[in-house]
Amino acid sequence: MRKGEGQAIFTAECSHHFHFNCIATNVQHGNRVCPICRSEWKDIPFQAPTNDADSRHSIGQARVSPYNASLEDTFVSGLHQPATNQFEADDFSDDESLPSIHEGPAPSAHPQAITIKALAELPAILASDAVSKFSILVGIRAPPFHVDVQQFDRASIDLVAVLDVSGSMAGKLDLLKRAVCFIIQNLGPSDRLSIVTFSSSAQRILPLIRMNHSGQDDAIRAINALSSRGGTNIVEGLKKGVKILEDRREHNPIASILLLSDGHDTLNGDSRSLYRSVQNHTLNPRHNLQYLYLLPTSICPRNNASGDESRQLTIPVHTFGFGSEHDSNAMHAISDISGGTYSFIESIDILQDAFARCIGGLLSVVAQDVQLTIQSISPGVQIGSISSGRYRTQTFDQGQKAIIYVGNLYADEEKEFLVHLSIPVSTPAEGGEQLDNMSLLDVVCSNKDSTTMERVELSCERVEIKRPEVLSPMDRMVCLQVDRQKNRLSVAEAISNAQRMAEQGNLERAQAVLSEQRTALLSSVSAQAGDELCNWLEAELREIGQRMANMQLYEQTGRAYVLSGLSSHSWQRATTRGHTTTFILGEGPTTGTNPTISYETPSMVNMVSKSQILNHGSSQQPQRLNKSSNLIKQHK
Question: Cα–Cα 20 to 30 A to 358, which of 32, 215, 525, 561?
Fold first, then answer.
């Protein structure tokens, strides 16, 4: 729209110009064709209503029309989605206020705490031996929901859905609408949702509003009015989503972005052409992706001009790539750098289940800002490296103290890390008496309570080993839980190495790396003991090998499948990958290959089951791998 002789001028997509007031009146009577060339308009003018009832959505919100509503009703209600964002406000501080009083019953006065475990890989070391790398398994587990107050025993969330509505989404929009509506209907009245759509440009079609009944109705109307057109501008969509969260006046404890796309960014140089040559042999493809420098610092902290990434507030972006044409490298890099997860949706039919798995976790946060503090308590015992995946760690006082920054925990969620120590020769105590035991570490967990936001420190877990003159057979027994964790980390590293080889076009070497890891895995102590996690890891290696059979298959599905798996292993958090999510116990997956469902929590399982019941219209809940049968969780 432009101005002309004191009157606003509307320029239609067919390039014909009209006085805005005249053409807006014409459109209000249901006319959606150009009076000159008779071409049908998709993008039509709209004059916002002035009544107070609509004032909540009048600032910076693009109007959208209810799906299947009559055209006349659409405009009377004042809900329409414009094609461009040129009328949109730059300031998104119009978020709906949070409830002043918590709605619903109060949480338990004595909530369960996070539990800690710390296990040495061996129960004893000879008193005369010094060990340069001795592994300690440090694990935590979040408490479950309180059954009677599930809806109110978690942190509320501010969620922004950033949705691809480019032309390539034309045949997928109905399933996308259904899947997003599933999210809307499962958010609570204290949760808030905003929706951003992007094609060639991006626009906010719903401000950050509470998901009470009225808010859910508004959100569903916005989603049902979506139509596809134009190119793919992922960067603009993310910038707008970030700005909504940065500009909000009030904050729920949890904030996150869901990004969905089926293609490559076609308006920012196309990220495929922004990759550097992989000649530096880095194991992490995100270091080769210049595309990340286009993102806001709240997603990519390394873009902070000050250079201090640790002080930068990071908003997790959980990405969902549809089909074989989406940019799996970019989607994985965006999620990885921001602390989110990347899911590969091989079949659009399982999109709702993939959303369900993700929000099943996001809607079950029971502990925030979790930190593990590890303190050496014997002279000469030093903390070396920590195998923590993508979780940030710091070591202080020349290896005497370390912190693992875990962040938020979902209900019943577990995290495990390997702390590697150097242990000196055992020295006699005063008086020349040889000590039988040596204390190695104290492990303390602290977190902010999800509802009170108070920092809570838990009781200390101490790690001790024996230091005998002679080892007994029992002293030589390897801890299976430590060995299992070593296997998981080794498999993840082998998959990353194989992926790097595949990116260089060396599939033969990639297959060799996977094969060598399978052999090492099956010969491990825990595998020989029949550990089911080892069986699952071996199956994962075989599946990845099959998807690296040739370059065409690797580029179609292998790359995305591998990156989604690495995302899951790096954060020890469930992702969806492949083209099925249903697993019937005793029968195997209902379609396709065995789905990767590691790290699932009961809340995720329940939400996916709810999605499947809605999708299949069945009153019989499908049996899924749950906590007791999840391979990752076996025998912990």
Answer: 215
Which stretches does DSSP call E strand in 377-436? 382-387, 392-396, 401-410, 414-423
Tokens of 600: 């699932």
Dihedral over Cα of 232, 233, 238, 241: its sign:
negative
Name, in order, each residue with C-beta under 8 angstroms of 9's C-beta and a sequence gap of 6 or more.
Answer: 1, 2, 3, 17, 18, 19, 20
530's CB contacts (< 8 A; 6+ apart) are none
Distance in angstroms (rounded) separating the CA atoms of residues 15 and 461: 71
Hey, what are 31's tokens? 């006319």
- Closest by CA to 413, choosing from 338, 333, 492, 341, is 341
Nearest to 535 by CA among 601, 594, 608: 594
φ, ψ at 3 (rounded to 5°): -95, 150
| Percent of the residues in the chain that have a pLDDT greater than 70, as a whole number | 71
Phi, psi values for residue 445, rounded to 5°: -110, 135
End-to-end CA gap in the chain: 63
Q: Is 480 exposed, middle or buried (0-12, 13-18, 19+ CB in 10 A)?
A: middle
Asked whether the CA dihedral 338, 340, 345, 351 is positive or negative, the reply is: negative
| Higher-scoring residue by pLDDT: 45, 210 | 210
Question: Secondary structure of 217-266 in the HEC alphabet?
Answer: HHHHHHHHCCCCCCCCCHHHHHHHHHHHHHHCCCCCCEEEEEEEECCCCC
Angle of CA points 436, 440, 442, to nearest 5° = 130
At residue 547 the predicted structure's pLDDT band, cuts being 50, 70 and 90, is: very high
Tokens of 192: 């808030």
Q: What is the mean pLDDT of the segment spanning 465-493?
A: 95
Q: What is the pLDDT of residue 17?
A: 64
Q: How far apart are CA 571 and CA 388, in angstroms?
A: 9
Residue 456 and residue 247: Cα distance in Å, rounded?
30
Distance CA(186)–CA(612), nearest Å, equals 14
> Residue 371 forms beta bridges with which residues?
405, 446
Query: Distance (Å, rounded) from C-alpha 542 to C-alpha 546?
Result: 6
Per-residue pLDDT for 617 more than 90?
no
Query: Residue 550 in 3-state DSSP?
Result: coil
- pLDDT of 591 over the 60 cut: no
Q: What is residue 441's predicted lDDT score, i.e. its pLDDT?
A: 96
Max CA separation in the chain (angstroms): 105
504-532 pLDDT per residue, tens:
999 999 999 999 999 999 999 999 999 98
